Structures are given as structure tokens and as C-alpha cells.
């Protein structure tokens, strides 16, 4: 049985990177999709294959009247709209990131008032205490468990910057709506997503862009030893859909790949796939890099969702590089690269 056939869905931020991939899958599953986006980072071209098949609404979800209109008659809401970006953006736009608390509050309240059946919230691994994401000792990696980020437990609330705190407060608010009003929901903690349609403020696309323009020396932010579980966007969208099907009680769940890779090793894979190899690499220790090690514990994902990401890093990188090289102009990227790394 197809869970999504004719289900009336709203995707906030649905023209953006992750949101547009989610729309792709929901349309393919037969859902009746409405997208609400202000196009601050989203692009209509990301939805071009669905012209006539979706209901697109342009507007700002901080405008309560607009949010009330787009919520009307929806059964399920995937809430991805946010002021967001990679490390180059969130470390240089703290006020923008903090404003997500206002946006989330309006979306959740209007979802409740519209009697929406389920909200699936795009949270982030940035909710986890940074004290759990330091350099591993004795080679022992710390795997982040969902219960370790909780504003009501001592030692479990020390999120990564304004962006992380706003996401944690979004989770708290959504759980409050479940406890008080019975609004079913799930918070998906997304780990280092990459893939087609992503912008250069995110690490993977930034590193691909630098190879694309032949940067010499090739610049890496930090010492290259930072570790992440890079998760292909198609897997992220699939995981969110599975979470929306499975979890009702506002519980969080990690959505991240099992493979954990150092940035320097990611760069080597990019060199191998693109065929570009610089004469020298410059490790810029003055640039923002985030936490040292971020790795998801996937126990709950596997046990509760019965699922985990399927696309390997090498496969995902090949897809992403092929898209980037096919859709970008080298001279244009080279001219604006410095700005692209920090602005959406």
C-alpha cells in the first residue's frame, strides 16, 4: 500500500536544496504537494520538472496570514524552511539563524490551528552538545545518541551556535504541541547533507567548486582532520519520508550515513573523481570549521525506521560532481567564489 497516494502535503522550503529532492520523491509517490518558499535560497528551476503537478506559493512564512493560507487543507507538513547554509554561512549570519525560532513557532502554531495530522521537522546535528564533538581520544569516536540533546536534561543542552540552538528550541516547541494538543510529529536530525542543487556555503560543494576552477594552491578550511558522516541528499529525503511514516510522538531521530570521513580524505576522493590535483594545498586555520568530529549513532534509525542510508560516499560524490560540472560555468564560479562560500 502506498502511504502517500493522494495525501495532501505541504513542504516549506520546498524549492531549496533538500526540500526540492523531498518534493521529487513525494510527487513520485502520488502525494498532492504544495510548496511554500520565499526563494531566498530556493530556486524555481529546482521544481521545473513538476510544473503543473504541484501548487507553488511564494511568500514569507514569518507572515502569519501567508502561513495560515498555505496550511489550509494540508494533512502532513514537512517543515524545512529556515535561514540556513553551511559553516561559511551560519558562522557569519548568527542573527539570521536565530530568527528561525520565530519562523518555527508560527509554522507549528498554524499547523495546529489548521488541524494538520503530522509535522516532520528538519532539525540538525547542530543540536548536539559541542562537548561531545571534540577530537577523539585514543582513536575512540563518539557516536551521537538522540537522548544526548535535550533542553530538560542537565548536560544535554550546549548546541552548536545560534543555528543549533534554534533547531533545538524548534524540537522543544514541537514536542510541546504534541504533549498539549496531540499534534503528531517527528524531528529529523540531519547530518552533513550534500548533493545536487546544493550551494557553495556547504563543505562538499565548496571543495568541488575549488577543484572545478582549478584553485592553486587549493584551500581547505581548518587542518583537514575534521570528521563528518557526509550523507547524500537522496538518502536524507528518503529518511525523512520514512520518519514521517513511522514516528508520531515528536521524538527525534538521526538521519545520517554510517561512513565517517576526514575532510582531507574527502578532498582526495574529489581529486580522484574530477582528475584535478593541485600543486599545493593550503590549510587555512583562520576560517570557521565547526566541531572537530560529528558522527551519528544510527541505532534508533535502524530499529525504529527499519532503514538507513544506501548511497555510498563515492557514488554520491560522482553524482554531485557530474551535476556541478554540467550546470556551472567555470569563469563565473571563479569570479564569485569568495562570495559564494559565505552567502546563499
Looking at this protein, list some descriptive labels:
344 residues, alpha/beta, Rossmann fold, three-stranded mixed beta sheet, 12 helices, 39% helix
Summarize the structure.
The chain is 39% helix and 17% strand. It has 344 residues and is of the alpha/beta class. The chain has a seven-stranded parallel β-sheet with strand order 3-2-1-4-5-6-11, with helices on both faces. A three-stranded mixed β-sheet has the order 12-9-14.
What do you see in this structure?
By secondary structure, the chain is an alpha/beta fold. The protein has a domain at 8-195 and 230-258 and 295-310: NAD(P)-binding Rossmann-like Domain (Rossmann fold, 3-Layer(aba) Sandwich), CATH 3.40.50. It is built from twelve helices and 14 strands. Strands 3-2-1-4-5-6-11 form a seven-stranded parallel β-sheet, sandwiched between helices. Strands 12-9-14 form a three-stranded mixed β-sheet. Helix 1 (17-28) packs across helix 8 (233-246) and helix 7 packs parallel to helix 9.
Please write out the topology:
Layout: E1 8-12, H1 17-28, E2 32-37, E3 55-58, H2 64-71, E4 76-79, H3 87-90, H4 94-98, H5 100-113, E5 118-124, H6 161-181, E6 184-190, E7 193-194, H7 203-212, E8 218-221, E9 227-228, E10 231-232, H8 233-246, E11 249-255, E12 261-262, H9 263-274, E13 281-284, E14 293-294, H10 299-305, H11 313-327, H12 330-340
Parallel strand pairs: 1-2, 1-4, 2-3, 4-5, 5-6, 6-11, 7-10, 8-13, 9-14
Antiparallel strand pairs: 9-12
Helix pairs in contact: 1-8, 2-5, 5-6, 7-9, 7-11, 7-12, 9-11
Amino acid at each position: 500500500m502506498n502511504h502517500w497516494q493522494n495525501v495532501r502535503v505541504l513542504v516549506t522550503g520546498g524549492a531549496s536544496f533538500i526540500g526540492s529532492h523531498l518534493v521529487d520523491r513525494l510527487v513520485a509517490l502520488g502525494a498532492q504537494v504544495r510548496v511554500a518558499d520565499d526563494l531566498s535560497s530556493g530556486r524555481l528551476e529546482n521544481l521545473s520538472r513538476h510544473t503543473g503537478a504541484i501548487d507553488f506559493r511564494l511568500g514569507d512564512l514569518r507572515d502569519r496570514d501567508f502561513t495560515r493560507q498555505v496550511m489550509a487543507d494540508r494533512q502532513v507538513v514537512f517543515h524545512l524552511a529556515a535561514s540556513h547554509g553551511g559553516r561559511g554561512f551560519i558562522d557569519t549570519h548568527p542573527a539570521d539563524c536565530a530568527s528561525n525560532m520565530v519562523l518555527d513557532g508560527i509554522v507549528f502554531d498554524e499547523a495546529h490551528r489548521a488541524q494538520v495530522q503530522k509535522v516532520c521537522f528538519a532539525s540538525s546535528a547542530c543540536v548536539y552538545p559541542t562537548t561531545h564533538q571534540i577530537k577523539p581520544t585514543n582513536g575512540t569516536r563518539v557516536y551521537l545518541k538522540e537522548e544526548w540533546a535535550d533542553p530538560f536534561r542537565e548536560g544535554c543542552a550546549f548546541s552548536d551556535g545560534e543555528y543549533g540552538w534554534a533547531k533545538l528550541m524548534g524540537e522543544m516547541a514541537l514536542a510541546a504541541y504534541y504533549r498539549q494538543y496531540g499534534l503528531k510529529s517527528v524531528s529529523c536530525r540531519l547530518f552533513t547533507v550534500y548533493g545536487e542543487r546544493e550551494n557553495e556555503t556547504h563543505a562538499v560543494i565548496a571543495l568541488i567548486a575549488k577543484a572545478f576552477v582549478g584553485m592553486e594552491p587549493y584551500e581547505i578550511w581548518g587542518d583537514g582532520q575534521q570528521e563528518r558522516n557526509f550523507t547524500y541528499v537522496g538518502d536524507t529525503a528518503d529518511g525523512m519520508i520514512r520518519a514521517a511514516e513511522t514516528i508520531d510522538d515528536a521524538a527525534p531521530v538521526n538521519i545520517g550515513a554510517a561512513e565517517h570521513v576526514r575532510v582531507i580524505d574527502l578532498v582526495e576522493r574529489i581529486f580522484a573523481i574530477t582528475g584535478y590535483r593541485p600543486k599545493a594545498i593550503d590549510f587555512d586555520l583562520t576560517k570557521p570549521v565547526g566541531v572537530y568530529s560529528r558522527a551519528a549513532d544510527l541505532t534508533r534509525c535502524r530499529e525504529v525506521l527499519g532503514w538507513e542510508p544506501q548511497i555510498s560516499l563515492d557514488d554520491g560524490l560522482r553524482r554531485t560532481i557530474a551535476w556541478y560540472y554540467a550546470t556551472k560555468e567555470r569563469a563565473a564560479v571563479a569570479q564569485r567564489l569568495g562570495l559564494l562560500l559565505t552567502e546563499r
